[in-house]
Amino acid sequence: MPSMRATSDRPSVPAIKRLLRADDLAAVSEQVEGLRPRQAISLLERLPQRERALVFRMLPKPLAIDVFDGLDNPLQADLVHALQGEEVADVFARLDPEDRVGLLDELPAVVASRLVRALPEQERTRTSAVLGYPPRSIGRRMSAQIITVRPDHTAEEALERMRRNLDSAETVYTLLVTDDERRLVGALRLRDLLAADPAERVAGMLHSTEAVEVGESAELAARRCADHRLLALPIVDAEGRAVGILSVDDALAILEEAESEDAARSGGSEPLRRPYLSTPVRRLVTSRVVWLFVLAIGASLTVQVLERFEDTIAQMVVLSVFIPLLIGTGGNTGNQAATTVTRALALGDVTPRDILAVLAREARTGVSLGIIIGAAGFGVAALVYGVPIGLVVGLTLLCICSLAASIGGIMPLIAKRIRVDPAVFSNPFITTFVDAAGLIVYFLIARAVLGL
Length: 452
Known about the structure:
There is one protein chain. The protein is mainly α. The chain folds into 3 domains: 7-135, MgtE N-terminal domain-like (MgtE N-terminal fold, Alpha Horseshoe), CATH 1.25.60.10; 148-257, CBS-domain (Roll); 280-450, Tetracycline Repressor, domain 2. It has helices at residues 13-21, 25-33, 37-45, 49-58, 61-70, 73-82, 85-93, 97-104, 109-117, 121-131, 155-164, 190-195, 218-227, 248-266, 281-308, 310-315, 323-347, 355-385, 387-417, 427-450; strands at residues 148-149, 174-178, 184-189, 212-213, 232-236, 242-247. Helix 8 crosses helix 10. It is globular.
């Protein structure tokens, strides 16, 4: 019987590395034998690729299967490349079809084809069905392992049907109720089924439920599952036939991936799609370097604006002192608006059709912020550099906050309308645009107020 090792007593990564360097594989095996799946996953995520494969081989087979299933798809792909064919084929065959497809998307076509061909015929058919759905659709992430009952079934018959499929079903807390042609007519909660009289018909217990088509975006389907607080969301085809189910834990995993992707892109990089410590340095570089080049090119707009108003700066050098303050305030204001609206888009609170309403709200918000920040800027600048300079700084902050909030608010909606990820159009590009536009406003106000 494996020992129940506390989380705090799990082997540390440095300790495992020392044992591997000393070729003390017996000690490594002893260290990992009693781990729980979550502990083993955490350990493997922090090891380099070669050492990860060595440690994985030492896990007891039942634990190895659970651990492989719990790893991110890129780490699974690393293990596929490192392990022998028969080891991979056995673990691969034990995955659910939707989990297999996630792994296959990470593998070269030749390796993926070999793994699919090695599957038993029934599992190969189930996997091919999931592969037939569009990438990023809910069909790729749903589970086809569902329990269906008909309205004319009794509670006793429904319970017996559930017991027969207990080991293979994705979830038993929600049963799908379908007609003779497998069209979805409702859902049945396990609680209601257990409380019912054995002779009571399912038709009297079923309730209406949300459902999404199999081709819909996985993120939108997961959001709907979360919004309606469902333990499982039915998935149907174009004719309304039940083809699968999205469980709440899978929905949360999809939303976590989407949040990570948005956070990375709004910060000017590509998502890693794997734990940080298991990400090669070259992957960290490639995830950031392209964006840095794009933003550097965008920042050249700011340089050009400064060159255009070089004479103005020469006449009043003190104006250059406030440039970091102004462009920083504008960028932060725009980013705040963009982040708020992008989040509202994700939650379904707004749509691209609401662009005028969002523009009006963000313009008013920007003006209000500009009045507050501008008044503070005027007071400080006037005390140190005189009232005229204070007036220039205060008016510029008012204009920049109004402009940045308005642009930051509508850019995610425009991105959504043209089918671009709103996070891509968010913070980096808004900051670049607001920097250049804010400097133009600043120098135009300075010329008007100071008579330059």
